[in-house]
Design goal:
This protein has 626 residues and is of the alpha/beta class. The chain has 22 helices and 23 strands.
Length: 626
C-alpha cells in the first residue's frame, strides 16, 4: 500500500505561520559537530542536511547555530554570530530549497552548559550557578550583558533571513541560555530578569519582539522549550503551558516541545527498548491550551507511531531525529510503500554520545556527514569478493562493495546473521537490534549481495574478507585456574551455564547484559563490578535501564568489588576487569569463529557500541577503497 493511503495524516499539508509544508515529516534539530572549525557551513553539514531534504522531509530544522562565540557547545558548532557566516548559510538554504524542502535555522547559546576549553571565553549565565555536569562557574550577566545577548539572537536571526532561510527557531530547551532564564532551576536573579515567570520570560520575549521588528512577516518564528525538565525547581507541564500561552500572545508561529536539561539528559536521549513516542502525551497536555502548531519528540521513528499521534491530535508535527540519521530516505520510502527497506534507528545513542569520534556517527548509516563518499561510482575493476561472516561491519562492507559494482557473496549460517549484535538482540529489552540486522541484510541484498549459508569455505573469488571477533579480556588469565566462561560465551549460548547460581565479575557492558540475560533465564545472579558503575563502556542510559531490570529480576549487584574470585559461589562468568586492550593494540584479544584457508583482510566484529561503530566505519572504508 502506498504511504499516502496508509498514513493520510502524515501526508496532509500543515502551516507554520508563513510556511506551508506538503507533509508532516520534519527533521529535528540534531547537533552533529559537522561544521567547519570556524563555525561556517562546510560540505559535511551541507551534504548531511541536503540529503534529508532529498529524502522527502518537508522541513529541515538545522542543529543549533551559535549566536556568540561564548555559547559554543561543541568545537565545530555551526555559527551565525557575524556576517562571515552568510555565504555558507546562503549555500545551505539554496541547496535545501532546490531539493524540495523548507529550512528553519535553530539559534542558540549554551550559557553555562559548555566549557571554556570549548569556547575560549568565560561562561555566562543568568546566575552564578555551575552546570552540575560540567562543574564550571559561569559569570552572572549584568543588565547590559543580558541586553547584549538579546541583540545577538536578533542579529543571528536576521542573518538567517538574509541567507534565504524560511524561518528561525529559538532554542529555549535543554538547559541552554534561554532555558536558563526561563527556569527557576537555574535563574536565581532578583532583578527584572528573575523571580516571577513574567520576569524570567523577559529575555525570551525581548528576543521575540526584536526579531518580529527586524524581520518581515514571511519569516517564520518558532520557539523550542523543555515542557518538563525533571530537576528540582525546573519547568514542569503547568508552567510550560503558561510559557506557551505567553509566547502565542507575543506572535510566534509554532512551538516545539522537548524535555530535559543536561542534568536529566538520559530522559532526553532515550535508548533501545524505551517506548516509541514517549513524550507525545506530554505534548498533548500542552497542545490543548494553544492554537499554535505543536511539534513533538519522543523517539519517533516509525510512521505508525507518528500517524497515531496525529490522529489523536497529540502534536501537529512529529519530529524525526535519530531516525533521520539512520535513513535520510525514510519519508520517500514510506510514501512509495517501501517501509520494509527502511534502515531503522535502534537508539544505541552513539550519535549523541560521540565517544568514538567527535562528530556524529551512526553504526547503521556510515554515510551520515559523508554523503559524497557514498554516491557509489562504479569501480573500473570489478572483483569477486567473498565475505566470511555476517556481522554488522561485514554486512556494511558487502553493501558498499556491491553498490560499487563488485560481485559479493557472504558466507554465514542462516541463524548467525548479525554476528555479535545477534547475541545482543537476545538480551531482554534489546530485541530491536534484530530489526537493525534485518535492515542491514536487506540493504545488502538490494545491492546485489548473495548469501550462502552453512559453509565457510569460499570458492571462485578474487578477495576473501573474514570476520574476527574482538574480545577485550582473556578469561584464563583472570580465574586463578578456576573453571569459568567469558561473558561473550554466555551471551552466545546462555544455556551453557550449569546450575542455578551464577556469579559474574566484570565492569563492561557485555558482562552487565550477560547478567540480565541469565536472570531472564531463571538463574540466581550476582554481578560483582570492580568499578563504581556497571557497564562502564556503555551509554549511561543503558546503565540506568539495566539496573531497573535487575531490580525486577532479582539480580544482586556489588560495585567497587575488590574481593577474591574464590569468594564467588556457583558458576563463574568473567568479563572485563581493569582496562581492556584497545582494538588496535598489539595485545588485543581476537577469536576467529570462521577460518577459511585464505584471508586477504580481516573485518572486526565487536559487542560494545563504540568499538562496533569503529569497526563498521573501517569496513565501509575498506569497501570504498577496493
Amino acid at each position: 500500500m502506498q504511504g499516502h493511503a496508509q498514513f493520510p495524516n502524515l501526508f496532509t499539508p500543515v502551516t507554520l505561520g508563513p510556511i506551508t509544508l506538503p507533509n508532516r515529516f520534519v527533521v529535528a534539530p540534531m547537533t552533529t559537530n559537522f561544521a567547519n572549525p570556524d563555525g561556517s557551513v562546510g560540505d559535511a553539514v551541507h551534504d548531511y542536511l541536503v540529503a534529508r531534504a532529498r529524502g522527502g522531509f518537508a522541513l529541515v530544522i538545522t542543529e543549533n547555530i551559535g549566536v556568540h562565540p561564548s555559547g559554543r557547545v561543541m568545537p565545530r558548532m555551526l555559527m551565525g554570530h557575524d556576517d562571515s557566516m552568510l555565504p555558507g548559510l546562503s549555500r545551505l538554504a539554496t541547496s535545501i530549497h532546490a531539493a524540495g524542502a523548507k529550512v528553519v535555522g535553530q539559534i542558540s547559546h549554551a550559557g553555562r552548559q559548555t566549557k571554556t576549553a570549548t569556547t575560549g571565553l568565560p561562561l555566562v549565565a543568568p546566575s552564578p550557578i555551575p552546570c552540575p555536569l560540567n562543574r564550571e562557574m559561569p559569570v552572572e550577566l549584568t543588565l547590559d550583558g543580558v541586553r547584549q545577548f538579546e541583540q545577538c539572537y536578533i542579529d543571528a536571526a536576521c542573518r538567517l533571513y538574509k541567507s534565504g532561510f524560511d524561518g528561525v527557531e529559538l532554542h529555549g530547551a535543554h538547559g541552554y541560555l534561554i532555558a536558563e532564564f526561563l527556569s527557576n532551576y537555574s535563574n536565581k536573579r532578583t532583578d527584572i530578569y528573575g523571580g516571577p515567570l513574567e520576569n524570567r520570560m523577559r529575555f525570551l520575549l525581548n528576543i521575540v519582539r526584536g526579531i518580529r521588528e527586524a524581520c518581515p512577516a514571511d519569516f517564520a518564528l518558532c520557539v523550542r522549550i523543555s515542557a518538563q525538565e525533571f530537576v528540582p525547581d525546573g519547568i514542569a507541564i503547568p508552567e510550560a503551558i503558561e510559557i506557551v500561552k505567553r509566547l502565542e500572545a507575543a506572535g510566534i508561529d509554532a512551538i516545539s516541545l522537548s524535555v530535559g536539561v543536561y542534568e536529566s539528559f538520559n530522559r532526553l536521549s532515550m535508548i533501545t527498548g524505551d517506548p516509541e513516542g514517549q513524550w507525545l502525551d506530554m505534548a498533548d497536555q500542552v497542545r490543548r491550551h494553544t492554537q499554535l502548531p505543536v511539534m513533538g519528540v519522543g523517539r519517533i521513528k516509525r510512521a505508525e507511531v507518528a500517524e497515531q499521534a496525529l490522529q489523536r491530535h497529540q502534536v501537529d508535527i512529529p519530529l524525526f531525529g535519530r531516525a533521520s540519521f539512520a535513513d535520510p530516505e525514510l519519508p520517500n520510502k514510506i510514501a512509495s510503500g517501501r517501509s520494509g527497506d527502511i534502515i531503522w534507528c535502534n537508539s544505541c545513542n552513539i550519535c549523541l554520545g560521540r565517544s568514538a569520534r567527535p562528530e556524529t556517527i551512526c553504526p547503521v548509516n556510515p554515510a551520515v556527514g559523508r554523503e559524497a563518499m557514498f554516491e557509489f561510482h562504479q569501480t573500473p575493476e570489478p572483483r569477486r569478493i567473498a565475505i566470511v561472516g555476517a556481522g554488522w561491519a561485514s554486512l556494511t562492507a558487502a553493501w558498499v562493495a556491491a553498490s560499487r559494482g563488485h560481485s559479493v557473496t557472504v558466507y554465514d549460517t542462516s541463524t548467525g546473521l548479525g554476528g555479535i549484535q545477534d547475541w545482543r538482540a537476545r538480551v531482554p529489552g534489546l530485541e530491536e537490534f534484530a530489526d537493525s540486522t534485518t535492515a542491514l541484510v536487506g540493504r545488502a541484498k538490494r545491492a546485489g549481495v548473495r548469501f550462502i549459508h552453512d559453509t565457510f569455505e569460499p570458492a571462485d573469488c578474487d578477495l576473501v574478507w573474514a570476520v574476527r571477533r574482538y574480545t577485550p579480556f582473556a578469561v584464563n588469565a583472570l580465574t586463578d585456574g578456576r573453571d569459568a566462561l567469558s561473558s561473550y560465551e554466555v551471551l552466545e549460548t546462555p544455556g551453557r551455564i550449569p546450575g542455578d547460581e551464577v556469579a559474574l565479575i566484570g565492569q563492561d557492558l557485555a558482562t552487565a547484559e550477560a547478567a540480565l540475560l541469565l536472570a531472564s533465564h531463571g538463574k540466581r545472579v550476582i554481578l560483582r563490578c570492580p568499578t563504581r558503575f556497571i557497564a562502564l563502556d556503555g551509554h549511561p542510559g543503558y546503565r540506568e535501564s539495566t539496573l531497573k531490570a535487575y531490580k525486577h529480576l532479582g539480580v544482586t549487584v556489588e560495585t567497587s568489588f575488590k574481593g577474591a574470585i574464590a569468594q564467588c559461589k556457583g558458576a563463574l562468568v568473567i568479563g572485563e576487569i581493569g582496562p581492556a586492550a584497545a582494538i588496535d593494540a598489539p595485545e588485543a584479544q581476537w577469536s576467529t569463529p570462521f577460518s577459511p584457508t585464505r584471508v586477504d583482510h580481516w573485518i572486526a566484529d565487536a559487542y560494545e557500541p563504540n568499538v562496533l561503530t569503529r569497526t563498521i566505519y573501517e569496513a565501509a572504508d575498506l569497501a570504498l577503497a577496493t
